[in-house]
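Changelog excerpt: complex records now keep ligands as SMILES alongside chain sequences, and the structure block spans every component. Example after the change:
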Amino acid sequence: MTINEQQDAIISDFEMFTDWMDKYEYIIQLGKDLPALDEQYKVDDNLIRGCQSKVWLHADYKDGKLFFSADSDALITKGLVSLVIQALDGQPAKDIATAELYFVEKIGLKSHLSPTRSNGLLAMIKQIKMYAVAYQLKSSQN
Amino acid sequence: MFNDTITLPKPFNVADVRGDFPVLQTYVNGAPLVYFDNGATTQKPWAVLRAMEDYYTGYNSNVHRGVHTLSQQATAAYEAARETIAKYINAASVHEVVYTKGTTDSVNLVASTYGKKYVKEGDVVIISAMEHHSNIVPWQMLCEDKGATLKVIPFDENGELRMDAFKEMLDERVKLVSLTHVSNTMGTINPVKEIIALAHALNIPVMLDGAQAIAHLAVDVQDLDVDFYAFSSHKIYGPTGIGVLYGKEKWLNDIPPYQGGGDMIKTVTFAKTIYNDPPLKFEAGTPAIAESVGLGAALQYLMELDLAGMRAYEHHLNQVALEKLRTIDELRFIGNAKERNGAISFMIGNHHPTDVGELLDQQGIAVRTGHHCTQPLMDIFCIPGTVRASLTFYNTEEEVDKLVAGIKKAVIMLNK
Ligand SMILES: Cc1ncc(COP(=O)(O)O)c(C=O)c1O
């Protein structure tokens, strides 16, 4: 599936929810289900500081594709991190670098991408894109 | 009939005052707004909004500059607001009230002027471990610049200042004590009268950050005998962009000006400038005129309420909130001072404050989450932040019940 197909799948998952509680319970569950980040990656180098919650992000590169694992100290942020990974995991670096993540707005959580919220999600997406650009450069040099 | 009756204000009634604040009638996420973020900023009554509209629609003009009628009206209103402020804090003279941009600006003013003149290498400035960043950073900058030392009064597990430690810090090297009157994170009311008396015994002046105190306590600068007192208009129902520095007249005469420009001078030649007298000496440039009128209107609005009744109600509401919050499983307060007001900070189990705050927001309840610009305090408690509810006189017990129910709902969702 392409990034946009994965995003569309997320959006249709969220269409089932009729009230905010169902939606948030789902996000919280995603946060709880996100595979734990290996302790060796939970280091300051991988830490993305939002003003309020923290996100740790680790990327692996295999055959031109990027794979992510992550964690956050806040559960709702962690759920959203899980959704971002769902949308981008295993995709080619060049697609990730140019991806537009419209699903966050479509599922009614646009405020999480506002710089004023500073919960780490926006910074995380930026970091993911920087990884993607860096890997692209590296592979074009090889 | 005798005409010697004075009109007493109507006994305080929360239902009456709520109607004065238009924002309180709004809905957030489908629910009537419960606004518990008064520590960050307060809502504005119609009286303030109308006074500012009247200014812009009726007599907008620059102050202290024109012979024309509007300029004189604007100047009169700007100065009348200063008188209202002087009265509200019981300043000995209206010249002791300097308009600033807010608390932060007031602290920076004193750090730049008093600090420039009196703090030297090897000297000491004292603050506390519960300060807002705006009462930390200006002093750090000053001390770094001068080669002086910043000392920090610790607090105990209840969030009360360690007075023994404070007393030990006092000696002839200390040039200023700058302290928050009320903690914006824990709500602690500090024993400022005692602190001022102790410092004065060694001729050390004291500055108080009154940002969180001004709306909730009867602040009498003469009774406190405080040297400098700072607060922000927006935390006492007035507009943003303006605040106050109260300074004893002797200090305001003594310390150098802050910024140079128009209004703060008497005469200017390229050889020498004669500065204006305080307070204008500290008010360079066109000030926030409409905002001064708004702040004056806010204080006037309060003085026309039954202030004693209002304060008793606030106290009662805070007690009720503490009692009801205490019934929530796993809730622990950050700060348990005996004397407290305003901010109520807490953690729920190990839940991140932003998770709780976001689920409350979905229910129309506005609380603050995070470090509240007191990062050193969070480090002391080893927490990423708190959930903070800060109540004021227009809040109700019914709203407290909504907060408690909202938290319980959030916890169920997070624990599922
Ligand atoms: C105790 C305290 N000091 C200072 C400030 C800063 O006030 P302002 O941002 O209005 O300058 C605040 C406001 O958050 C505060 O609570």
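The two ends of chain A are 27 Å apart (CA to CA). The pocket of pyridoxal-5'-phosphate is lined by residues B 102-104, 132, 134-135, 180, 184, 209, 211-212, 232, 373 (CB under 6 Å).
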